[in-house]
Design brief:
Number of domains: 3
Radius of gyration: 23 Å
Strand order of the largest sheet: 6-3-7-8-9-10-11-15-14-13-12
CATH class of the largest domain: Alpha Beta
Largest sheet: 11 strands, mixed
Helix content: 25-40%
CATH architecture of the largest domain: 3-Layer(aba) Sandwich
Number of helices: 17
Strand content: 15-25%
CATH topology of the largest domain: Rossmann fold
Length: about 500
């Protein structure tokens, strides 16, 4: 262990120097990344069809390669799943990350090439450690183990040559052998399909380990942590794992969960580090513990472009490069990667908070919003409004989702919120008023639609009993891994499912 720790620290120092180049040469790094991607894929079917041999500039690339969605790429991906080679990227593709689907498919299967695994997905967690150790040089994190929850879908066969599962499961299957010394539980337990069985087995296997960190989606770890306390009879997590010091989280906004984690882990020394990783790649790391934005990782084999949100959905939208972006504007993210995703619209929206180095915050999803009446509520609005409301009312929210109530003969338009509370507000009407006013403050379109109740009424709030969202996700087969509770929708699908569940 001491030898491994020494090697890790030496590698980290070298890597920190490389990351510091983000400050000085971000545009050059990105152009070099793009030309490297094009050169590698020159002889693939995609590269030949799009004349990669003739591309030498960013402009050439943008003019020669159209924007893509999953549905556009699906015929190619289906061929990859059958074992064809050299389509998007040189060689075959052995791994596919299963994620939530599109309008036409229940699931998406995102190709994960060897290059993407080694230079993106596995590189991200290494840099998380490097940046954490840089910020906290006296850390004892390497003297203990990282708790791994694992994916909700273990590896399954498409055929004898290709496999699919949660990205976390794919990563667990591909990490170097020496990581067994610094993480827990075993692969066998981490990859159990059934979520509740997995939780119990993880607790049994890790309860006596020196766990110093954990990493993953906050909602699912909250389930695990609460079950740990139930099973052990302890008052907080530090009584179980006294050396716990950092939670590396991603997938959903952490703010709605922060107060609950403070109760579970009552220590001012506990650190929370946000990451931006997805089935399509690893994109951002919170490099400064005093800021709530993330450093955009520029040398992972990912080339970034950005569609201004006002342009999104147009037939030929304006697409910006890194050097063309403006701070505090909302952009739909477009990526070209060493997994063979070319000008792929990932479905996330981001805004930049800083240049040199470039730092981002995730603001939502291109498909997760409410715009039934021209109000254009995005997830960032909802999360901030909920945080303000909880701060003013003393409420603690476990989970929520929201969507439209459409106009009817005797019904004005409104937003319906289904909320599960950890701690209910004393004055429920005041809670609704603060939520409404916060949304008005954060979104001028919503404010305009709420003027004199002409288009929109006050939010309609339904209180869900404890455990409702957990039960709902279980029914949907969306337990654990990278599955997330949808915060907003522009239709009533999720609302109606939950209301039906509440009615018994």
């Amino acid at each position: 262990m001491p030898l491994i720790n020494s090697v890790i620290k030496w590698i980290n120092l070298k890597r920190i120097y490389q990351i510091q180049l983000y400050w000085e040469h971000p545009h050059e790094i990105q152009k070099e990344t793009l030309l490297g991607l094009i050169n590698n894929a020159r002889e693939t079917e995609w590269g030949k069809n799009h004349h990669f041999s003739e591309i030498s500039t960013v402009k050439d690339f943008q003019e020669g390669v159209p924007l893509q969605t999953y549905d556009d790429l699906k015929p190619y991906i289906n061929r990859l799943r059958e074992g064809e080679k050299d389509l998007f990227w040189p060689g075959d593709v052995k791994w596919f990350a299963k994620s939530s689907g599109t309008t036409s498919d229940k699931s998406k299967f995102i190709p994960v090439t060897r290059d993407a695994l080694e230079n993106c997905h596995l590189r991200g967690p290494k840099d998380v450690f490097a940046l954490y150790i840089k910020n906290f040089p006296e850390t004892k994190i390497l003297k203990g183990k990282t708790l791994t929850l694992g994916g909700s879908h273990r590896i399954n066969n498409f055929n004898n040559n290709s496999y699919y599962g949660d990205l976390s499961a794919i990563i667990i299957e591909n990490v170097p052998f020496w990581t067994d010394f610094i993480r827990t539980p075993s692969n066998e337990i981490a990859l159990i399909d059934e979520f509740e069985e997995k939780i119990e087995r993880i607790i049994d296997a890790t309860i006596d380990e020196n766990v110093t960190s954990f990493a993953g989606v906050p909602s699912w770890y909250l389930v695990l942590m609460k079950r740990v306390l139930e099973k052990t009879g302890k008052n907080n997590i530090l009584e179980v794992w006294p050396n716990m010091e950092v939670f590396t989280h991603g997938g959903v906004n952490f703010e709605p969960y922060r107060e609950q984690y403070k109760k579970l882990i009552p220590s001012d020394q506990m650190q929370y580090m946000e990451t931006y990783n997805a089935s399509e790649g690893f994109f951002g790391i919170q490099d400064n513990p005093h800021r709530n934005d993330m450093l955009l990782m520029l040398d992972y084999g990912v080339y970034y472009e950005f569609i201004p949100i006002k342009e999104f959905g147009k037939e030929n939208p304006e697409v910006l490069t890194l050097e063309e972006i403006e701070l505090n504007e909302n952009y739909a993210l477009v990526i070209s990667t060493n997994a063979g995703l070319w000008r792929y619209i990932i479905g996330d929206t981001v805004k930049f908070t800083c240049k040199y180095p470039y730092k981002i915050k995730i603001t939502g999803r291109t498909k997760h919003f409410i715009n039934a009446f021209g109000e254009e509520i995005i997830i960032d609005n909802a999360e901030k409004a909920m945080q303000i409301t909880c701060n003013h009312t003393g409420a603690i929210v476990n989970e929520y989702t929201a969507g439209p109530i459409f106009m009817g003969d005797n019904q004005k338009g409104a937003h319906q919120w289904i909320i599960e509370f950890e701690r209910k507000p004393q004055d429920f009407d005041y809670f609704i008023t603060v939520l409404d006013n916060s949304l008005k403050t954060l979104n001028s379109d919503y404010e305009a639609k709420r003027h004199k109740n002409l288009t929109l009424e006050k939010p309609h709030v339904v209180v869900a009993p404890t455990g409702t969202f957990y039960k709902w996700m279980k029914i949907r087969g969306k337990m654990g891994g990278q599955n997330k509770i949808p915060r907003l929708a522009n239709d009533r699908k999720y609302l109606d499912e939950l209301l039906k569940l509440l009615q018994g």
